[in-house]
Design a protein that fits this description.
It contains 26 helices and 20 strands. The chain is α+β, with helices and mostly antiparallel strands and 865 residues long. The strands form three sheets. The protein has a nine-stranded mixed sheet with strand order 5-6-4-7-3-2-8-1-9.
Length: 865
């Protein structure tokens, strides 16, 4: 079993070199002594002639390197000749590997960009997201009060600095028409935390960060290029944002990827500034930079101690609060880690199927080349040299496939951005040197996975046995290895098909879900606003009424409403609701999804009224409408109308009377059952509010008309994000759609490869068994029996592969449980349908070689023998 040592030319060891050198020096020294030199002079002359020990070793190494180079070049020439002489076989292998390695590299590029690479900031591992939360009243929006942020900065000992920000969409009206841009208000220490400075320009000055200080704005590189065409004199120019002038003081570099990727402007906000109660008005997202060497656990413990001290100092607002700290990368990636690794596992199965397919093809090819290999043996070639040649051929095919696969990966990167724009860091997915290296590494791995076993098996026959097998009409063996490989391909294909089938069934079930409202003919959009407008509620009410009246008066519009959050899209705003009439301690706390809507929301969305009345358009006491789930869960059939409730932790929402009960709508997402929901009648638009317009025609045909109408009444504002309501549902399910599309593609490709492998193996088997078939036909066998025999051989292997694949599918599809709706991971009809599909396709792949076998002419085959 030492044949592998001869794959490369053997290099002499140091002991062998030293022994060889001593022998030649002794011979030369004796010649010099015989010529009349003294022994010392003869030894010195011999040493000079050889140039020293190191020079001799280098000469030997040069000989080794030349032999290795010559052998490699010879193998490469042979590999090119092999590809040229077998174009169909080579093209099949190359295209199979291009597809498999390309898909694998594409998914790896997403994993590399999203999960493996650090965030694009200096010492990004020091960045952490810091949130506050109430253990007794968990809220998804764990934002921080500016005053508390300043206390954390002052009292902690583990962070270099903490900074906060919040974003809003504003109207930039410097140009001929108002344009919506996203602005981030940032607190002091912004540049210290992120570690990035403007280029060109400067950071904010202390005066600009002070209360009532001069205005200043930083712009993104993207905005600089789009709005100012990379004007080098942009510093000092002005932007008009919501009617106020802001001079541009700097341009952030293109590498600065702010957490809110839509942000194009940054403005300073004074430290500790607040609207309303300073410790209860929470609106900062807080990012901190840890001190060198400090771990997240240490920072968490330190800030918990700080918050406990603040709880003693401010018991009313801080005593119940706790602090959560998470590395910023983990916070950014979120739940995408699991789904991406799931995709990578699926595409790795596809690559394994492709490798198995190619192993079967190479085994068949090696069997056809037995005579050629036997001749090489007879001419003195070593087994190691032949294995090296066969591996070189496989490597060249894999290398070409990898290079072509890079183009597949480049196209797939665009697919990721198109299908899953909601994925974090999706804009960072692109081909770079790391992906090229990964693809080339795949080609090396594939070479050994695919090429080593066929190379060893194809060169193991004895010379006599190989030369004897020169006739293809000989009765062949059963080729168990090839059939085992076909079974493996089928099993893995069944596994992928089961996952794809379950995801497709899940989408089918989602399509049957009743939303509880009519989402057709609804156009959604937003208007540029800022939080400063929320300070004057009377003016804000007038603005909201004016916009809604304008929309309702527009021809082609049936009704209009507002909603903080898109109907049917998860808003994740569940809070505790306090019943002012009191509630028994034994009864569960009331926790509800909160929606802030105008009175016309129910008419526009066509949500039915079950009891009481909807909100009124006129002023009066605050009111709220609850859904049937709210009444059933917390009042158990008792009357709910007339009770007074107040959300806990929402400072801008006071007590309100329950005026009616509406039908259940799936406000938490189409894949979630209706949850207890409270619709707070709040006819006040704020930043982030969606305007909902029910149109008589196709929604997007009204977009331009509505935009012009809005410009007439609010010329300084910009309308944006015009989209049909149905599109929001597609966006909300984008990640699930990505899984379904890619897994279905992988599964279809895997099934195709498995069938190609079955077809190729059965065709090869038919060719080798032509003499056997001829004898059977000559002895009276019917051609139908021949077809049945070969067809059953292919189906038997596929059936065994299906059984193994079902076991793998049952074990692996549980990983999809969190992505499924209305379907069990072991759904029996889906698994049965997958097996039937595989068997039907396998039967079709087996039929053609079986029919060809039955058409063998007995006399012609026997004459060849």
């Amino acid at each position: 079993m030492s044949w592998w040592k001869s794959i490369f030319p053997k290099r002499a060891s140091d002991e062998q070199v030293n022994s060889e050198l001593r022998f030649h020096m002794d011979e030369l020294t004796e010649e010099y002594i015989a010529a009349g030199m003294s022994p010392e002079e003869a030894h010195r002359r011999a040493t000079l002639d050889f140039g020293g020990h190191e020079n001799f070793k280098e000469q030997v190494s040069d000989v080794y390197r030349i032999r290795l180079l010559d052998a490699t070049l010879a193998n490469l020439k042979s590999a090119f000749r092999f590809i040229r002489k077998s174009p169909t076989f080579s093209l099949t292998v190359i295209l199979t590997l291009a597809l498999a390695i390309g898909a694998n590299s594409a998914v790896f590029s997403a994993i590399d960009a999203i999960l493996l690479k650090p965030l694009p900031f200096p010492q990004a591992d020091q960045l952490a997201r810091v949130d506050q939360y109430d253990p007794k009243n968990p809220r998804p929006f764990n934002l921080v009060a500016p005053a508390r942020l300043e206390d954390w900065n002052r009292l902690n000992s583990t962070f270099q600095a903490l900074t906060g920000y919040y974003t809003e969409d504003v109207s930039e009206s410097t140009g001929p028409l108002p344009e919506k841009v996203t602005r981030a208000w940032v607190s002091p220490r912004f540049f210290q935390v992120w570690g990035v400075l403007p280029a060109p320009g400067r950071e904010f000055t202390p005066e600009e960060e002070a209360l009532n200080g001069p205005n200043a704005v930083l712009i993104s590189d993207r905005f600089w290029r789009r709005r100012f065409n990379v004007d080098p004199h942009v510093i000092g120019k002005n932007l008009r944002l919501d009617g106020q002038v802001y001079p541009i003081v700097g341009v952030m570099p293109p590498s600065f990827l702010f957490p809110n990727r839509e942000a194009d402007l940054w403005c300073p906000i004074p430290a500790g500034i607040s609207y309303g109660e300073p410790r209860e008005n929470n609106w900062f997202t807080v990012i901190g930079r840890l001190k060198p060497g400090v771990m997240v656990g240490q920072a968490r413990a330190n800030l918990a101690t700080v918050q406990a001290q603040l709880g003693q100092q401010f018991p009313k607002s801080d005593a119940r609060l706790r602090v959560s700290i998470q590395p910023l990368k983990e916070s950014t990636v979120g739940d995408s880690r699991r789904s991406l690794w799931l995709l990578f596992g699926s595409v790795s199965l596809l690559l394994l199927i492709a490798c198995t397919n190619i192993v079967a093809l190479l085994l068949s090819r090696a069997a056809q080349r037995r005579h050629e290999i036997s001749v090489r043996f007879s001419l003195g070639a070593s087994r190691g040299a032949l294995v090296a040649q066969l591996l070189t051929e496989t490597f060249l095919l894999a290398l070409i496939g990898s290079v072509l696969g890079l183009s597949v990966a480049a196209g797939a990167s665009g697919l990721f951005r198109a299908l899953a724009a909601q994925l974090p860091r999706v804009e960072e997915i692109h081909l770079d040197a790391r992906i090229v290296l990964y693809s080339l590494s795949c080609s090396v791995v594939v070479t050994f996975i695919c090429g080593l076993f066929p190379a060893i098996r194809g060169t193991r026959s004895s010379l006599a046995g190989s030369l004897a097998q020169t006739s293809r009409s000989q009765v062949s063996g059963r080729n168990p290895v090839q059939w085992l490989l076909v079974g493996v391909q089928v099993a893995l294909a069944v596994t992928l098909l089961a996952g794809a089938g379950l995801l497709l069934r899940s989408f089918q079930e989602l399509g049957r879900v009743s939303r509880g409202f009519d989402s057709s003919h609804i156009l959604t959009f937003q208007l540029s606003m800022n939080y400063g407008e929320t300070g004057n509620l009377k003016k804000l009410r007038q603005f909201t009424d004016r916009i809604l009246e304008t929309l309702r008066a527009t021809p082609g519009v049936e009704s209009a409403a507002i909603s903080v959050g898109v109907p049917g899209v998860p808003f994740r705003y569940q809070t505790e609701v306090k019943l002012l009439e009191g509630r028994s301690e034994t009864e569960p706390k009331i926790v509800a999804e909160n929606r802030f809507v105008s009175a016309s929301y129910f008419q526009t969305m066509r949500i039915p009224l079950l009891a009481g009345e909807f909100c009124r358009e006129t002023g009066g006491p605050a009111s709220v409408v609850v859904n049937r789930a709210f009444a059933d869960v917390y009042f158990n059939g008792a009357s709910v109308i007339g009770h007074h409730v107040q959300p806990v932790g929402l400072g801008y929402s006071g007590a309100a009377e329950i005026r009616g009960i509406s039908g259940d709508a799936r406000e938490s997402g189409l894949d979630h059952p209706p949850v207890p929901t409270a619709y707070w009648c709040a006819p006040l638009a704020e930043p982030g509010t969606y305007f909902l317009v029910r149109t008589r025609n196709t929604p997007m045909t009204m977009a331009e008309t509505i935009r012009r109408q809005l410009h007439n009444v609010e010329p300084m504002r910009s309308g944006y994000d015009f989209a049909p309501l149905e599109q929001h549902y597609s966006d909300a399910l984008a990640e699930n759609l990505l899984h379904t599309v890619l897994l279905s593609f992988f599964a279809a490709t895997a099934l195709s490869l498995a069938c190609i492998g079955l077809y190729g193996t059965l065709s090869y088997n038919v060719n080798l068994r032509q003499r056997e078939v001829g004898l059977r036909l000559a002895l009276g066998s019917l051609r139908g029996q021949i077809v049945k025999r070969f067809l059953w051989q292919g189906l038997t292997v596929c059936l065994a592969g299906c059984l193994a694949g079902l076991a793998l599918a049952v074990a692996s599809t549980r990983l999809l449980a969190g992505l499924l709706y209305g379907v069990s991971p072991s759904d029996f009809p889906t698994l049965v349908a997958v097996v039937l599909l595989v068997l039907i396709v396998a039967a079709a792949a087996s039929l053609l070689p079986s029919l060809r076998a039955s058409r063998v002419e007995p006399m012609q085959v026997l004459r060849e023998e």
